Every structure is written in structure tokens, then in C-alpha cells.
Amino acid sequence: MTISQGDKIPDVTIKTNGPEGPQDISTGELFAGKQVVLFAVPGAFTPGCSNTHMPGFVVNADKILAKGVDTIACMAVNDAFVLDAWQKAQNAEAFTMLADGNAEFARALGTEMDASGGGMGIRSRRFALIANDGVVEYIGIDAKGVDKSSADSVLAQL
Predict the structure, then answer these.
(1) Alpha helices in 24-76 (DSSP H)
(2) pLDDT tens-digit readout, 129-141
(3) How far are the Cα atoms of 18, 113, 133 from residue 81, in angstroms, in the given order?
(4) Tens of pLDDT along 65-98?
(5) Handedness of CA 72, 96, 120, 5 (dihedral sign)
(6) The whole model's pTM is what?
(7) Annotated catalytic sites, by residue?
(8) Who is most buried in 27, 35, 48, 60, counting CB within 10 A?
(9) Share of the chain above pLDDT 90, in %
(10) Could you tell me the CA-to-CA distances from 99 to 55, 62, 67, 144 in Å, in that order?
(11) Are 136 and 9 a contacting pair, CB within 8 Å?
């Protein structure tokens, strides 16, 4: 079942980039006591994610943070090395990159999808959510394109 408004973010250990390379991060700790905007993409360096989804958040990061958001996080079912390179290529240094390499967080959220037909294996659907102290206040999941999960849609909900 897909996570929805009013649900608590599941606590899953995934990876992020640290000064010494990939390090564990607990989603429970990341969301605790903060307002967090999380957007998820099917894959780093893929066309829609690199040309539309991520750039929208990069351009609007200051506006999102000005609304009282403590953390903007980007999650993909990729490894931490790929997300580190993508973060640098997208000038997204303000974001916490969440590498869900085994799709464990996507599965816990109920946002996983099977992209095996395209040779990509299990991925996350494209979505964005706003959570306060680990409780979902908004979630927008896109079946196609970037609409409900766009930075503009998130800003409209803040």
C-alpha cells in the first residue's frame, strides 16, 4: 500500500554521501523534528529526471527553504556514487541525496515500480512529499511526466 497523507514515514537505513564516501542514514532520524520535502525520481541521469524534475527543485530551492522547510531530499534507486555525481552535475549541493540502492525505502513507502522492461529493474515511481516530524502532509505521485511531484506543486502546498 502506498504511503498517504497522515502516515508516518517508515524508518529505513539507506545511504547518503558523506565526507568519506557513502554512509548510512536513517530515514526516521532524517525526518524527525523537521519539515522535509522529499522528491523521488526513477533514476539519476535519466532524461525526465535530469531535464525537468531535478532542475525545478534546484531553481526553486531558496523559495522552498524560505517556506520553513529544513531539508530538501532527493531519493533514487541508485547507488550513492551515482547520486553524488548527479548532485554535482545538477548543481544540487543544497539537497540531501538519498541512495536507495536496493529499493528498500521505495518498498517501505509503497512507491516501487518494476522497470525491468526497460532494463532498469525495480525503481521508485516519481513522487514528492512534504512531511512534518515524520508525518506526511502532502504526497503527489505522477503516473507520467512531472506534475504532482514538481517543485511548483510542492510550493503550492507549503
Answers:
(1) 27-31, 47-48, 54-66
(2) 999 999 999 999 9
(3) 11, 22, 28
(4) 999 999 999 999 999 999 999 999 999 999 999 9
(5) negative
(6) 0.94
(7) 49
(8) 27
(9) 82
(10) 18, 23, 26, 22
(11) yes
